[in-house]
Structures are given as structure tokens and as C-alpha cells.
Specification:
Rossmann fold, 42% helix
Length: 265
């Protein structure tokens, strides 16, 4: 199992393929395993790297030091230890937030950035966003991690067609340490980089699922405001679109990667 040591923390990662470096960053309570179908597809043409964040998957971590900037520092350290000069980064949800942190803190290291179902802030504004926040806080306080995982699976991967994926995902998510999950969730609250987006110097791709819990229109506006931004909405999908519909997601991402194959900003 490949690992590096970053700030005294063992960081697990998957690596497969050859070519230009392509880094996949997972979401809250997830791990590199949720990128399995992207790893298989993109490793045919890219050097694919999928790490587990601190406190996630097979990586270690310290509850007291977990933050999104800390995760960005860890990924930067990973790239340096792997002697990777520049990489394209793809992040979903929390991973997209870390991707923005990474592009802001270390712009020379990021060739392109794709952000999936995430915005440049994690501050509830609409009633539904407040409801989701308060519901999640209630669940974390009174409900087991396994039960939360089951509820998330039913919501994010619904229906008979996704039954096998849902069962496998729920089994993985149920392994989360409760204290680590709570610390990771709390690290998201109030996070924002809206005032630092001008520091991102690479092409930016905002991908939204139609039924994500953050409005697709917000991501579309963000992409329109960014000088080198693009936006795509995947119809009929939910928050974990790379897992829910990997073929569709892979094709949309692959098309964007090829359109920007010569980006060297």
C-alpha cells in the first residue's frame, strides 16, 4: 500500500497509469475508493493519483489539526514527494474545496482544476441549505455513523439500478471514525475562498449535478465570473455524480481535459 509521511501523518494514495499527472480528491467521509471507476478509465492516458485525506480512508490524521488548508498542504507535499512538477486536479464536494485551496496556495503546481458539486464557500444561505446543515448536526450528535451512512446512501444513490453501488458505498462510509467524521464536518463550516479566487491562475471547470444540494446556477455564475472558467451541468444526477453515473462524468471530464491539453498557465 503506497504511502507518504506528511507532517508525521501517513497518507495513503492510489497511483496507476502514465502520462500527465491527474489527481482525484474525494469528499467528506469518503476515500480514494470512490474514484475507482475514474482511476480505471483515466489511467489509460494519465498518471492518475488518488489520495486519502487525513482522517479518511487508510490515511492517519490528527483531529486537532484537520482543516481544508491543511489538506491542501498535504496534497502539495504528496506531489513534491512524488516529484510531480505540475498536475491537473479534480475534486468532488470537500475535495473540490481542497482543490481550490491548493490552486490558491500553490498556483505554480496546478495546471487545471475541475470542481465537482462544490462552491467557493460553505456557508448556508438558502432555507434548504440551513435545513441540511441542522439535520446533519443533529444526526452527528445522536445517530451512529453506520446509520448516517445508510441514510446518505439512500439519498445519494437511490433506486434498484444503484443498489449494488449503494451497498458497497454504505459499507465503506460506515467505517468512518465518529470523532474524525465530526471534526472533518466542522472544518467545512464557514470555509470560504471567495476573496481569493483571483489567485487561481489555471483553467477552472465547474461541474454540477442537476439535483445537487447546492444550486447549479451558483456554479454557473462562478464559472462565468472567472476569466478562464467553464461550466457543465449533468442532468438527472445528484451530489456523487462520479459514482452515480461514471460513464457520463468521465466523458464530460475527458472532453474538457482534451480541450485544455496544451494549457501551461
Amino acid at each position: 500500500m503506497p504511502t507518504i509521511i506528511s507532517a508525521d501523518i501517513p497518507i495513503h494514495f492510489e497511483r496507476r497509469g502514465s502520462g500527465s499527472p491527474l489527481v482525484f480528491l474525494h469528499g467528506l467521509g469518503s476515500s480514494s475508493v470512490d474514484w475507482s471507476e475514474q482511476i480505471a478509465f483515466f489511467s489509460q492516458n494519465f498518471d492518475v493519483i488518488a489520495p486519502d485525506f487525513p482522517l479518511h480512508g487508510q490515511s492517519g490524521g490528527k483531529i486537532e489539526t484537520f482543516s481544508l488548508p491543511h489538506c491542501a498542504d498535504v496534497i502539495h507535499d504528496l506531489l513534491n514527494q512524488l516529484s510531480i512538477e505540475k498536475a491537473t486536479v479534480v475534486g468532488v464536494s470537500m475535495g473540490g474545496m481542497v482543490g481550490m485551496e491548493l490552486a490558491i496556495r500553490y498556483p505554480e503546481k496546478i495546471a487545471k482544476l475541475a470542481v465537482v458539486n462544490a462552491l467557493a464557500e460553505c456557508k448556508p444561505r438558502m432555507a434548504i441549505e440551513w435545513w441540511m446543515l441542522l439535520t446533519r448536526r443533529f444526526l452527528l450528535k445522536f445517530v451512529s455513523v453506520a446509520r448516517i451512512a445508510k441514510m446518505m446512501g439512500d439519498q445519494l444513490l437511490p433506486g434498484e439500478a444503484l443498489k449494488e453501488k449503494r451497498i458497497e458505498a454504505v459499507a465503506r462510509w460506515s467505517l468512518n471514525d465518529r470523532a474524525s467524521y465530526i471534526a472533518s464536518f466542522n472544518a467545512l463550516l464557514g470555509w470560504q475562498v471567495l476573496d481569493k479566487l483571483a489567485l487561481i491562475r489555471c483553467p477552472l471547470f465547474l461541474i454540477s449535478a442537476e439535483f445537487d444540494h447546492t444550486p447549479p446556477t451558483s456554479k454557473k455564475v462562478l464559472a462565468a465570473l472567472y476569466p478562464d472558467g467553464e461550466f457543465s451541468m449533468i442532468a438527472g444526477m445528484r451530489h456523487l455524480v462520479p459514482l452515480e453515473s461514471p460513464d457520463t462524468f468521465n466523458q464530460i471530464l475527458n472532453d474538457w481535459l482534451h480541450r485544455h491539453a496544451s494549457s501551461r498557465r
